[in-house]
Amino acid sequence: MNTDNKAKNSNSNITPFCPTAGAGQSESFTPEDALKLDYQLCFPLYAASREIIKHYRPILDELDLTYTQYIAMMVMWEEKAISVKDMGAKLFLDSGTLTPVLKALEKKEYVTRNRSTEDERVLIVEITEKGEALKQQALKVPERMAGCISLEPMEALELYRILYKILGKEV
Amino acid sequence: MNTDNKAKNSNSNITPFCPTAGAGQSESFTPEDALKLDYQLCFPLYAASREIIKHYRPILDELDLTYTQYIAMMVMWEEKAISVKDMGAKLFLDSGTLTPVLKALEKKEYVTRNRSTEDERVLIVEITEKGEALKQQALKVPERMAGCISLEPMEALELYRILYKILGKEV
DNA sequence: TTCAATTCGATTGTGTTCAATTTAATTATA
DNA sequence: TATAATTAAATTGAACACAATCGAATTGAA
After folding, report:
1. CB-based contacts with strand D under 7 Å?
2. What's the CA gap between B25 and B44, in Å, rounded?
3. Nearest to B76 by CA among B105, B47, B97
4. Which of A6, A67, A106, A168 has its CA 20 to 30 A from that of A22?
5. For chain B, where do the domains classified as CATH 1.10.10.10 start and end?
6. A70: CB partners within 8 A, 6+ apart
7. What number is the average pLDDT over the span B108-136?
8. SS3 call for A81
9. Is the pLDDT of residue B2 over 80?
10. A42-166 architecture in CATH?
11. What pLDDT is stored for residue B6 in this prediction?
């Protein structure tokens, strides 16, 4: 329940996903410690991601959207029309995930799905008027999420920067 | 594909999950911008989490463990015996997720599952000798994950600290 | 004590997530 | 031009996540 987070103070034992790979490690740090939950970086990343998405749920429920559908709609509000492949690149999701999500959005009439006439392999997703209208409802989502978690502005910014570095999009 | 990450430079528009809630925002920042993927904090968190877990897969495949099974075993290597509820608190997972994971680990004979004699509602998960032995194989996992992603030690530490702050375990 | 409320884990149903495979379309090469 | 290689989505199968619900056990209040 109340983990002690030993790593907090002993620093530098936390290096990208392998504490043991770090340079100046404290003497008490054993190879076995590298298998402790408290020394992992991936685990809190994974847990924090799920915890925040959990906060989205009641808000998105009012729009009858799941979180995945919501971020897909974010892409649509910006792009208006985009291929499944390009949306996948933006969201780091493959067609196995996106196909059912986009079919669900099509069923709700927020998007249309049609093959490109230039290249029949490509499926173009286009936003509908109903999809555009949904954006007005969605404006309240970021509003309502605010204050849900309390990070200092600089912490949020630093987190943002590091996450995009992990995603290979150094900014 | 190549997102521009506008937020990078305009800073302070990224605040916890609602850019619009920030104080000194740049003049060009509209409420609609709060719905852009580039101004989200949750999205890169979610994407980075999945990207890193993807890196674990080929390594964990050699141990015939999934990532969820792996973090459950991490708890077992530390605790030896624990209730489903307490493991759930440690991993931020509920019984709906843990029950099948623990049954899979039981099938592989890494753990046993027995009701507590003191309180029959409580299921105690205990590590077996085979489960203990697996730890020696698992020592290579953090090793192999090292260098998978390139963060500076201080970045990793700062990320760790912020993530635990999000998880409500300020360290 | 007795019955209502609570707790714990399991189950169910929905919706991802992703590797691997398949199919159709396009491009490149012999 | 044939045909081989490549590409884009869809499909399939396995494993999560999680809300909601259930049943059994325990606790608490009248």
Report:
1. A 46, 50-51, 53-54, 57, 83-86, 88, 95-96, 98-99, 102, 113, 119, 121-123; B 53, 66-69, 92-97, 100-101, 104, 118-121
2. 21
3. B105
4. A168
5. 42-166
6. A56, A60, A63, A138, A141
7. 97
8. strand
9. no
10. Orthogonal Bundle (1.10)
11. 44
Of B42, B92, B109, the closest CA to residue A159 belongs to: B42
Is some CB atom of chain A closer than 8 A to the CB atom of B28?
no
Task: Give the type of residue at A154.
Answer: M
What CA–CA distances, in Å, run from A96 to A88, A101, A119? Answer: 10, 9, 20
* pLDDT mean across residues, chain B: 87
DSSP state at residue B147: T
Contact A65, A53 (CB under 8 A): no
Give residue A13's pLDDT band: very low, low, confident or very high (50, 70, 90): low
* Residues whose CB falls within 8 Å of the CB of residue B16, separated by 6 or more in sequence, listed in order: A145, A146, A147, A148, A149, A150, A151, A156, B41
How many angstroms separate the Cα of A124 from the Cα of each of A91, A112, B49, B58, B82?
A: 16, 8, 28, 33, 50
pTM of the model: 0.88
Residue A127 per-residue DSSP state:
E
